[in-house]
Design a protein that fits this description.
28% strand, 281 residues, single chain
Length: 281
């Protein structure tokens, strides 16, 4: 878990395409939407960003896949947008394991193909050893050896193909590594649902980046403080309550561990029966 890194990106839509170049076009008007893409890296045992880079929405996700910054024994869980055979081959030479999802219509040569079935005769897992070939612009060819693991997703009732350079680990471990990638999707969802990133106070690129950095810092602080609470709070409820109490000088841990304690003390100190206040003295 400490060596497992999860890399992904999320796009934050902007009103103007002049600041950050957008990706895609509006289905009706045909105009492009401006957008800033936050490329994020998290460690599976932490759940908070350890590295964040900002680019325009048009930048390819493989921008963040840098083999030179990784060490032997590191594990990457990435999406299909990061598939790059040249970088994958460099990761393999460095002793870095990657697990990603297969793209459709990828061309490869099959070296071996084995299928394991359940006692009922259904496919449990299929393992293929394959090679990918890429012709470089500078000349030369890169041949990358990998393994395709196909398994049945019982929840979604479909087959899932995973691509990895790990030739030894059991298929169940490869599947478990890729499922951990969902942590970064939950992080993006948490940030977008609980913090205002639909409207920006500034129109410059620097102002937009500052507001996103402030959002990430606030999310980090709330995550750390939430772990220190003994009472169970959902992140959304906690964020809402902190937003309401932000301008009051209160003890965070006392308030959210025992929210009714202060009110009980006030009720006990009050005289019996309702107090009738005088309008005119």
């Amino acid at each position: 878990m400490k060596r497992l890194r999860i890399i992904d990106s999320t796009t934050i839509t902007l009103f103007s395409n002049l600041i950050f170049k957008g990706a895609g076009r509006h289905p009706k008007t045909g105009s492009k939407k401006g957008g800033i893409k936050a490329h994020t890296v998290i460690h599976a045992n932490e759940g908070v960003p350890s590295d964040v880079r900002f680019t325009s929405a048009a930048t390819n996700d493989s921008f963040m896949l840098k083999p030179a910054s990784l060490d032997k024994g590191d594990i990457l869980a990435i999406d299909r947008a990061y598939i790059d055979y040249e970088k994958f081959e460099e990761l393999t030479k460095r002793g870095v394991v990657y697990v990603t999802k297969m793209k459709k219509n990828l061309k490869y040569n099959i070296l071996s193909d084995m299928m394991y079935q359940t006692p009922d005769g259904l496919m449990e897992v299929r393992i293929q050893h394959v090679t990918f070939t890429k012709v470089l612009k500078e000349g030369g060819t890169v041949i990358h050896h990998a393994r395709i693991i196909t398994h049945a997703d019982e929840r979604k009732h479909r087959l899932v193909q995973l691509l990895t350079n790990d030739m030894e680990s059991a298929p169940t471990e490869i599947i478990a590594i890729y499922r951990k990638r969902w942590e970064i999707e939950l992080l993006f969802k948490q940030i977008k649902q609980n913090f205002p990133l639909k409207y920006f106070y500034g129109e410059s690129a620097n102002a937009i980046k500052i507001q996103i950095w402030v959002t990430l810092i606030a999310n980090l602080l709330l995550t750390i403080m939430k772990k220190g609470l003994t009472r169970s709070w959902s992140f959304s409820r906690l964020a809402t309550m902190v937003r309401i109490m932000l301008m009051y000088y209160v003890n965070f841990y006392s308030l959210f561990n025992h929210p009714g304690k202060d009110w009980e003390a006030i009720l006990k100190a009050a005289p019996e029966g309702p107090t009738q206040l005088e309008l005119f003295t």
